[in-house]
UniProtKB/TrEMBL annotation:
Organism: Thermomicrobium roseum (strain ATCC 27502 / DSM 5159 / P-2)
Keywords: 4Fe-4S, Cytoplasm, Iron, Iron-sulfur, Metal-binding, S-adenosyl-L-methionine, Transferase, tRNA processing
E.C. code: 2.8.4.3
Annotated Radical SAM core domain residues: 154-384
Cofactor note: Binds 2 [4Fe-4S] clusters. One cluster is coordinated with 3 cysteines and an exchangeable S-adenosyl-L-methionine.
Gene behind this protein: miaB
Residues annotated as binding [4Fe-4S] cluster 2: C168, C172, C175
Alphabetized GO MF terms: 4 iron, 4 sulfur cluster binding; metal ion binding; tRNA-2-methylthio-N(6)-dimethylallyladenosine(37) synthase activity
Cofactor(s) required for function per UniProt: [4Fe-4S] cluster
Annotated TRAM domain residues: 387-447
Name the record gives this protein: tRNA-2-methylthio-N(6)-dimethylallyladenosine synthase
MTTase N-terminal domain location: 21-137
Length: 458
């Protein structure tokens, strides 16, 4: 297990702002967790709390966990373990743990970590009331205002995640998510639109619609609207300039959805379509419900209808029984498709899933080798893909400062940094790309005449 240390304890614990209560949130896992932590933060602010950079200064600490791989689970367990010391020194601190670690495990966890005051499952915000009585007066469904923290200061976000469908109806043999997030539940179109309108009013310019299988959206709603219909509705919200969505399942990536991305100007030309493996036998044992040929055909269609689209995918290496030849099929698929971004993970058996009953027979060293091979291949491909931007001008939305440089993303979701005086946050900026790396681009804002930045404020 990983050893997690809290930030060093201060020599003496003093309440910096007497009478004001403070919260600290620790998050690991997917964008759904980020969205839920943002919502918890918004709720606590509504209840009068302010953020604390360090656990030591907080009146309530919320831990948002993930168990998708052993490594994530170990990190969360290590952090919860480290909080024992905080609780010993400050018995008045309230500790709440949420996220996928908790579902169905409360009793077992409570025995192991008695210093935790509350265990609550994903989205069960109403249960926070027992630790934060002030929340009794807050309308939980109406608080959807994310904030970001920058050195203790909180500002409204420029971009926001909006969950649109919870849970997952697939049962991929390696995956624990359906056991911890349950069956699919779509939020009604009107509720999503109302939330996006509220975000736009707060200054948010870009929304990412979230779901474990976001393109399954709507089949459980009256009238069965689909993701393309939802995109069209969100597209009408004034103030929102960019729309993204995550994560899609290849089985449901319909022509209608591809056309929506192609035709709706605000929907960004970026598709995240996890393939997991490039070998049909492995895909069958993963219970993915598509073949490599079907996947390839979808990608070809996407590229045909959305010119200049950027593509990302997820890969698992070292799945039970994965032979060298089967791994090479994945490797060759990556060489063939040339994704802009690949998230690669070493297979990690998750108790309770189907594949956990099969021998985890690819040795750790071999998993590492395959992982490295994919990373090295992808580093080369991503560099070549990104180099096509050098000399071109791209439009980015600046979402913040990172180590003295302004940071933004292109419509294709590529990271771009530039240096310039002034405050560029929340602005659409035309940047001429001067340098490319596999992970980001460097550039300079396009200037008109003197030093006047050409800013596309909308
Ligand atoms: N719903 C998405 C992803 C869910 S989990 C999809 O269908 O692709 C996010 C990523 O974690 C997955 O894409 C997969 O690559 C990885 N993952 C999930 N379970 C895993 C496991 N047991 N071991 C290693 N990686 C895993
Ligand atoms: Fe897990 Fe598969 Fe559902 Fe994705 S589609 S969340 S990998 S079960
Ligand atoms: Fe992790 Fe749960 Fe997300 S297991 S990846 S936090 S859905």
């Amino acid at each position: 297990m990983q050893l997690i240390q809290l930030q060093p304890a201060p020599a003496s614990i003093v309440d910096a702002v007497p009478g004001v209560k403070r919260f600290h949130i620790w998050t690991i896992g997917c964008q759904m967790n980020e969205a839920e932590s943002a919502k918890a933060a918004a709720l606590l602010r509504q209840a009068g709390y302010v953020p604390a950079v360090r656990e030591w200064d907080a009146d309530i600490v919320i831990v948002n966990t993930c168990v998708v791989r052993q490594q994530a689970e170990d990190k969360a367990l290590g952090y919860i373990g480290a909080l024992a010391r905080l609780k010993r020194r400050r018995p008045d601190v309230r500790i709440a743990v949420t996220g996928c670690l908790v579902t169905g495990q409360e009793r077992r966890l409570a025995e192991r970590f008695p210093w935790v005051d509350l265990w609550y499952g994903p989205s069960e915000f109403e249960r926070l009331v027992s630790l934060v009585p002030e929340l009794a007066d807050v309308d939980i469904d109406l608080v959807e205002l994310p904030h970001y923290y920058d050195e203790g200061q909180a500002d409204p976000e420029v971009t926001a995640f909006v969950p649109v469908i919870y849970g997952c109806n697939f049962v991929c043999s390696y995956c624990i998510v359906p056991y911890r997030r349950g069956r699919e539940r779509s939020r009604p179109v009107e509720q999503v639109v109302a939330e996006v309108e509220k975000l736009a009013a707060r200054g948010v310019r870009e929304v990412t619609l979230l779901g474990q299988t976001v393109n399954a959206y709507g089949h459980d709603l009256p009238g069965q609207p689909d993701l393309a219909d939802l995109l069209e509705r969100v597209h009408d919200v004034p103030g929102i300039e960019r729309i993204r969505f995550l994560t899609s399942h290849p089985k449901y990536f319909s022509d209608k959805l591809i056309r929506a991305v192609a035709d709706l100007p605000k929907v960004c030309e970026h598709v995240n379509l996890p393939v997991q493996s490039g070998d049909n036998e492995v895909l069958r044992r993963m219970r993915r419900h598509y073949t490599v040929e079907e996947y390839r055909e979808r990608i070809a269609r996407i590229r045909e209808l959305i010119p200049d689209v950027t593509l990302s995918t997820d890969i698992i290496v070292g799945f039970p029984g994965e032979t060298e030849e089967q791994f090479l099929n994945t490797y060759r698929l990556l060489e063939e498709i040339r994704f802009d971004k690949v998230h690669v993970a070493m297979y990690s058996p998750r108790p309770g899933t189907l594949s956990a009953r099969w021998p985890d027979d690819v040795p750790r060293e071999e998993k590492r080798r395959r992982h490295r091979a994919v990373e090295q291949l992808q580093e080369r491909i991503a560099r070549e893909r990104n180099e096509r931007y050098v000399g071109r001008t791209v439009e980015i939305l600046v979402d913040g400062l990172a180590r003295g440089r302004w940071r933004g993303r292109t419509r294709g979701n590529t990271l771009v940094f530039f240096e310039a005086p002034g405050d560029w946050r929340g602005r659409f900026v035309e940047v001429r790309v001067t340098q490319a790396s596999p992970w980001y681009l460097l550039g300079e804002p396009v200037t008109v005449g003197a030093a006047e930045p050409a800013i596309l404020t909308r």
